Amino acid sequence: MLRQTTDFLVRTIGLVLISSAYFWQFNALTVIDLFGIANPNVDKAALGPAIGCRNAAAGIMLLVLSLQGHRQLAGVFLFVWVTLVGPEDIFLCIKDDTSWTTHAVNLGIGWTLSVLSWYT
Q: Keywords for this entry (predicted)?
């Protein structure tokens, strides 16, 4: 009973963290066009911590799922996460002339890890 309650609380807290981080991020971006390129009026001071919080929350959820023995579910979560977030970050980096190759490598690593977790 205690383990089920703990599992539920950890997942709920993780989902709340991810949701609040996304709200914070989109509030900082204010507008994103169809290609994921940010509005020139982006508050970059707020955007960095929002993205960091979002990624940390996702990392916590992946760790919790893996530790609880849900490796395949963690793989699915990672695949969806990387697919949704990776291209967005790459487009934002291209727009800002920053190092988008780092994000492309992370995208590849994320997809590789998710596929490996499905088959192990």
A: Membrane, Transmembrane, Transmembrane helix
